[in-house]
Design a protein that fits this description.
With 696 residues, this protein is α+β, with helices and mostly antiparallel strands. It folds into 3 domains: 60-382, Catalase core domain (Catalase HpII,  Chain A, domain 1); 447-532, Up-down Bundle (Hemocyanin, N-terminal domain); 539-695, Rossmann fold (3-Layer(aba) Sandwich). The chain is 27% helix and 15% strand. It contains 20 helices and 20 strands. The strands form 4 sheets. Strands 3, 4, 5, 6, 7, 8, 9, 10, 11 and 12 form a 10-stranded antiparallel β-sheet that branches. A 6-stranded parallel β-sheet has the order 17-14-13-18-19-20, sandwiched between helices. Strand 13 (543-548), helix 14 (554-566) and strand 14 form a beta-alpha-beta unit. Helix 11 crosses helix 13 (494-503). The longest helix is centred in the middle third of the chain and has 18 residues, at 354-371. It starts with 20 loop residues before the first strand and ends with a helix. The relative contact order is 0.09. It binds CIS-heme D hydroxychlorin gamma-spirolactone 17R, 18S. CIS-heme D hydroxychlorin gamma-spirolactone 17R, 18S binds next to strand 4, strand 5, strand 6 and helix 9.
């Protein structure tokens, strides 16, 4: 599909017979279908005279261009959408009547849009940010939108605070920057004044917000939803997406450089994986629980700043999501897709989670503004794949219009009728209470799960959280904001507080902020909360950067490529010139990247196949030296020929620095050793040797 050069854009065209063509070439037309004679010059009087208003082709072309943009999303503006399917693997008929979950093997078409939150549409992919993970299921009983994130909790407990947290995170209003980052005063000012955000702060300062790619991250529905079965019984449910490839993130210094080298790193990764026939896959898991569990749980199940640890309610895997199709047109699908949390289907319902209730208003309202009218369900990406039968009519851009005489009901003509048995029924939960604006006491604990999250991390992940806090708060100009933020940390972990205080150069750790409710100190650590405890099971889906020079050993290169591909991974060849390098056997090996455009930050592991002469040339080249020194600093596995070592030395990587992450490549078997080392992930012990923050 992506190779197609051009397709007739008019669905009403009626086929080939109307095609105006010259030979095999279709003739360019206006939007009205009028053939165009000249698309290079406007209509003018004389050779150099004034332009004429009569030039309808010019005016229509410019008019259309002027209106190409629709408002970008206020949040999640930068996104990337793809298509695929969801397959039920375990029937959920015991707890929900939702059609898509009735039988194993049932497949449902989906559209998924991944996104960052704070950056504008043109920002970069590797901002430190939450990722949106929004899934539209086109079920036989209507569209269900599960509009989730890659983090299972949120910043705030009440939707009335959403404009505030978003304003604070996005660019500051007077200057219009900083873009796509929370490392500025306004964000931390708001956060430090909002203790309810502290659990989310631990997640966003962890490596979860700098994922290796969309393919290596989890997704969460966040809120507690309801399943409702055929008898009308309700079960609470939380939704989880688990990537088949496991979890993986990059490191911060690497993220910063990826944004320069390839601002589209994440979207390119997903596009490439799908186009090369390696569609990413997730498992859908559900946590199911009842009122009795809800009553006994330490926290309120309606509070979106809390998780339910998997140890307390295990995850039942019920399906798989496969994303196997890129879009035909970015605007038509990724830009126009309209997710709404209130899009649910029979068998799925809401709870009183205040955020969810607030979202149910916000999303429809947003779509009306963005898409310009109430008919956005007529746009193919938003249109249900089942019949739509009602008497709603007219409005801007009405494109799928009903036929016939009747447009009301009840009527005596016929047409669709409501069905108390098949139709959507809201769960009749019993509600009573006084009308008030309060924050319930059951939402008052802000630190216990922040502490639990921190305690669940490996030491290197804990270090990354402290590093991220120090980095972000160091960008705050006001010291009182830094201090106020650090004052929350003793309630989470005393050592974390001391490390961050020292990292900021504070004279002493500020006294702990007074908690609204004393934190629970002994919640047990939970392994699923750590990335490194859930590493990819193999090297599948990752990418090796192979830097070659003239004279590199052709056989060795072939062995290396075979080993990488054998592990289900991919590679790119990088060379001093994109035209390639002349290998030892005389063949010309083309490159995918010139060294300047293929820095090592774009790869999971690297190999340098340099001849002695080639290494001498690389040794004078800054991008080539950065290739090695960055791979080293980012704790990557590095394969190398013996001839490459003098070049490494020049790049600042001396023989005594070479740890278990260095693999000498001389003979065929070494390629297998290299890939086995890559499969173990990063060489984290190295970070303690190369980072000043680790030494303070
Ligand atoms: Fe959103 N959010 N949100 N959000 N959100 C939007 O809707 C909103 C929240 C999420 O790829 C907007 O179509 C409110 C939580 C995703 O198109 C807007 C509140 C979670 C996307 C909106 C929240 C999300 C959005 C902007 C607090 C994770 C992108 C554009 C009550 C569970 C969907 C749009 C896409 C988008 C409102 C909180 C996820 C303004 C009021 C919690 C993935 O309507």
């Amino acid at each position: 599909m992506t190779d197609e050069v051009y397709r007739d854009r008019n669905p009403g065209a009626g086929g080939e017979t109307h095609q105006i063509a010259e030979g095999d070439t279709p003739v360019l037309t206006t939007q009205q279908g009028v053939p165009v004679a000249d698309d290079q010059n406007t209509l003018r009087v004389g050779d150099r005279g004034p332009a004429l208003l009569e030039d309808f082709h010019f005016r229509e072309k410019i008019f259309h261009f002027d209106h190409e943009r629709i408002p970008e999303r206020v949040v999640h503006a930068r996104g990337f959408g793809v298509r695929g399917y969801f397959e039920t693997t375990d029937s959920l008929a015991d707890v929900t009547r939702a059609d898509l979950f009735q039988k194993a093997g049932e497949k449902t078409e989906v559209f998924v849009r991944f996104s960052t939150v704070a950056g504008n549409k043109g920002s970069f992919d590797l901002a430190r940010d939450v990722r949106g993970f929004a899934v539209k299921f086109y079920t036989k009983e209507g569209n269900w939108d599960l509009v989730g994130n890659n983090i299972p909790v949120f910043f705030i407990q009440d939707p009335i605070k959403f404009p505030d947290v978003v304003h604070a995170a996005k660019q500051e209003p007077d200057r219009g920057f900083p873009q796509a980052q929370t490392a500025h005063d306004n964000f931390w000012d708001f956060i430090s004044l909002s203790p309810e955000s502290m659990h989310m702060v631990m997640w966003i300062m962890s490596d979860r917000t700098i994922p290796r790619s969309f393919r290596f991250m989890e997704g969460f529905g966040v809120h507690t939803f309801r399943f409702v079965d055929a008898e009308g019984r309700s079960t609470f449910v939380k939704f989880h997406w688990k990537p088949k490839l496991g979890l993986q993130s990059v490191v911060w210094n690497e993220a910063v450089k990826i944004n320069g080298a390839d601002p589209d790193f994440h979207r390119r990764d997903l596009w490439d994986a799908i186009e090369m026939g390696a569609p990413p896959e997730w498992e859908l898991g559900v946590q199911l629980f009842d009122e009795a569990f809800a009553d006994s749980f330490e926290f309120d199940i309606l509070d979106s700043t809390k998780i339910i640890p998997e140890e307390q309610v295990p995850i039942r895997v019920v399906g798989r999501l496969v994303l196997d199709q890129t879009v035909d047109n970015f605007f038509a699908e990724t830009e126009q897709v309209a997710f709404c949390t209130q899009n649910v289907v029979p068998g799925i319902g809401f709870t009183n989670d205040p955020l969810l209730q607030g979202r149910n208003f916000s999303y429809l309202d947003t779509q009306l503004k963005r898409l310009g009218g109430p008919n956005f369900t007529h746009i193919p990406v938003n249109a249900p794949r089942c019949p739509v039968m009602n008497f709603q009519q007219d409005g801007h851009m009405a494109t799928t219009n009903p036929r016939g005489r009747v447009n009301y009901e009840p009527n005596s003509w016929g047409g669709p009728r409501e069905s108390p048995t098949r139709g959507y029924r809201h769960f009749p939960s019993h509600e009573a209470g006084d009308k008030r604006q309060i924050r319930p006491e059951s939402f008052a604990d802000h630190y216990s799960q922040a502490r639990q999250f921190y305690a669940s991390q490996t030491p290197i992940e804990q270090k990354h959280i402290a590093d991220a806090l120090v980095f972000e708060l160091s960008k705050c100009e006001r010291e009182d904001i830094r201090m106020r933020m650090v004052s929350h940390l003793p309630n989470i972990d005393a050592e974390l507080a001391a490390t961050v205080a020292a990292g900021l150069g504070l004279a002493k750790t500020p006294a702990a902020a007074k908690p609204a409710k004393p934190p629970i100190a002994d919640l047990p650590p939970s392994d699923p909360l750590s990335i490194l405890k859930n590493l990819p099971p193999s090297f599948e889906g990752r990418k090796v950067g192979i830097l070659i020079t003239d004279g590199a050993d052709g056989d060795l290169l072939a062995e290396l490529i075979a080993a990488v591909e054998g592990a289900g991974a991919t590679y790119e060849i990088i060379a001093p010139k994109v035209g390639g390098a002349r290998l030892s056997d005389g063949t010309l090996q083309p490159a995918k990247q010139k060294i300047d455009g293929g820095p090592s930050v774009l790869y999971d592991a690297v190999a340098v196949l340099a001849s002695a002469d080639g290494a001498a040339l690389l040794a004078v080249d800054k991008p080539a030296k950065d290739f090695v020194s960055d791979a080293f600093a980012h704790c990557k596995v590095i394969g190398h020929t013996a001839e490459a070592l003098p070049f490494f030395e020049k790049a600042g990587v001396a023989a005594e620095d070479m740890d278990a992450g260095f693999v000498a490549l001389a003979k065929a078997a070494d390629a297998t050793t290299f890939v086995a080392a890559c499969a173990k992930g990063r060489v984290w012990a190295r970070e303690l040797e190369v980072d000043l923050d680790a030494m303070s």
